Amino acid sequence: MDKILLKIAGIIALIIGIICCITIIGIIIGIPIIIGATRFLNYAQLDDVAILKYKNSILIWSIIFIFVVTIAGVLGIVFYAQMGETN
Length: 87
Fold this sequence. Notes:
This protein is an all-alpha fold. It contains five helices and no strands.
């Protein structure tokens, strides 16, 4: 699996999450974005067999990111689709 998409999605979401945390109201959205971004970055470091255990989590975070950080969400969905093709 090519985990570069997952890594790029995590970095983009992390940057957007940090930017959201600049304002007090943005912290409400920024903290969950940062949590999801760090999970994506952690998943990108796993090997192919171990990442399959987190397949559902990747899908859920990708769907959440589609509404908040669209680019990261689309990259997550593309990575999820590639995971399905390798099985």
